[in-house]
Amino acid sequence: MTNRIRVLRAERDWTQAELAARIGVSRQAIVAIENGKYEPALGLAFRIARAFGKNIEEVFLWEGQPPQ
């Protein structure tokens, strides 16, 4: 699974720390998710997507699935 978190953060000019604070996790968690080292549980994935005003499918992509 890949994600668009880095791109979405850049569009909003948010740091990893700002996103982490918005969703209640550590900055290290955001780093791990962005780099594909950690796949978030469903609840966290929803919180991330909602922070960006997106659906989960717009943030997290299965390998080979084109962005929407």
Care to describe what's here?
This protein is mainly alpha-helical. The chain contains five helices and two strands, in the order E-H-H-H-H-H-E. The chain has helices at 5-12, 16-23, 27-34, 42-51, 56-59, and strands at 2-3, 60-61. It has a two-stranded antiparallel ribbon with strand order 1-2. The mean pLDDT is 94.
Question: TL;DR of this structure?
Answer:
The protein contains five helices and two strands; from the N terminus they run E-H-H-H-H-H-E. With 68 residues, it is mainly alpha-helical.
Q: How far is the first residue's CA from the last residue's CA?
A: 15 Å
How many H/I helices?
A: 5
Succession of helices and strands? EHHHHHE
User: What is the CA-based Rg, rounded?
Assistant: 11 Å
Extended strand count: 2
Shape: globular
Largest sheet: 2 strands, antiparallel
Could you state the oligomeric state of the chains shown? single chain
Mean pLDDT: 94
Query: Which structural class fits the helix and strand makeup?
Result: mainly alpha
Which percent bin holds the helix content?
55-70%
Order of the strands making up the biggest sheet: 1-2
Question: Could you name the ranges where pLDDT drops below 50 across 5 or more consecutive residues?
Answer: none
DSSP strand content: 5-15%
Q: What is the topological layout?
A:
Elements lengths: L1 E2 L1 H8 L3 H8 L3 H8 L7 H10 L4 H4 E2 L7
Helix pairs in contact: 2-3
Notable traits:
68 residues; mainly alpha; 5 helices; 56% helix; 6% strand; globular
